Each structure stands twice: as structure tokens, then as C-alpha cells.
């Protein structure tokens, strides 16, 4: 990158993207573990009346965790794309400037 008094650290963007990916993986684990928490009326015993509501909550948790997983992954991918685009344009601009100035 050109040394004109400031430096954009695209590596930081990529590091942050990795953090978003880690959080996405955690939400994925939550989404997959929710299915093991389901129960039928027989398993519920004296709590049979809440089985339907419990199942709805599990479905909602699974759906929101899956949605969150996809969205967090998209943020990480977006950060990487921004870093790649910046590096590409910086390299291209530096090459053009060097051609004009003869450096």
C-alpha cells in the first residue's frame, strides 16, 4: 500500500471476519442441539399440557439460530469481500500512479 500518512489494515477486516464466522458456528451448534431437546407427551409426564408450547419454542429457537448463523456468516463474507476489493483497488491505483510518475 502507498505510504501517504495512513494505512488501511485489511488484515484486521479479515481477522474480524473470522470472529463473525466463529460466532456463526456457535449459532449453528445451538440450532442443531435444539432438535435433541424435543419430547413427546409420554416423556413429558405430568407436564403434558405444555408439550405443544414447548415444541413451538424449540422450533422458534431453531429457526432464529439458523437464521442468525446464516446472517453472521454473511457479515464475515462481506468483510472479506471489502478487504479483497480494497486491496485490489489499492494495488491497481498504486500501479497507475507509479506509471504516471515513473516510479
What does this structure look like?
The chain has 103 residues and is an all-alpha fold. The chain is built from three helices and no strands. It is rod-shaped and about 85 Å long. The mean pLDDT is 90.
Record field, number of beta strands:
0
What is the end-to-end distance? 14 Å
Rg over C-alpha atoms, rounded to the nearest angstrom: 24 Å
Q: What fraction, in percent, of the residue positions are helical? A: over 70%
Structural class: mainly alpha
Taking pLDDT < 50 over at least 5 consecutive residues as the criterion, the unreliable ranges are: none
What is the general shape?
Answer: rod-shaped
Reported for the largest beta sheet, the result is: none
Separate helix tally? 3
Quick structural gist:
With 103 residues, the chain is an all-alpha fold. It is built from three helices and no strands.
Which secondary structure elements does this structure contain, and how are they paired or packed?
Elements: H1 10-34, H2 41-44, H3 51-101
Key features of this structure:
mainly alpha, 103 residues, rod-shaped
Amino acid at each position: 500500500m502507498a505510504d501517504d500518512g495512513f494505512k488501511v489494515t485489511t488484515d484486521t477486516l479479515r481477522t474480524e471476519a473470522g470472529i463473525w464466522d466463529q460466532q456463526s458456528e456457535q449459532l449453528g451448534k445451538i440450532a442443531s442441539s435444539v432438535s435433541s431437546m424435543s419430547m413427546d407427551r409420554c416423556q413429558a409426564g405430568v407436564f403434558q399440557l405444555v408439550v405443544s408450547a414447548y415444541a413451538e419454542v424449540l422450533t422458534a429457537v431453531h429457526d432464529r439460530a439458523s437464521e442468525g448463523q446464516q446472517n453472521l456468516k454473511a457479515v464475515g463474507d462481506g468483510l472479506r469481500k471489502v478487504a479483497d476489493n480494497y486491496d485490489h483497488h489499492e494495488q491497481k491505483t498504486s500501479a497507475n500512479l507509479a506509471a504516471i510518475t515513473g516510479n
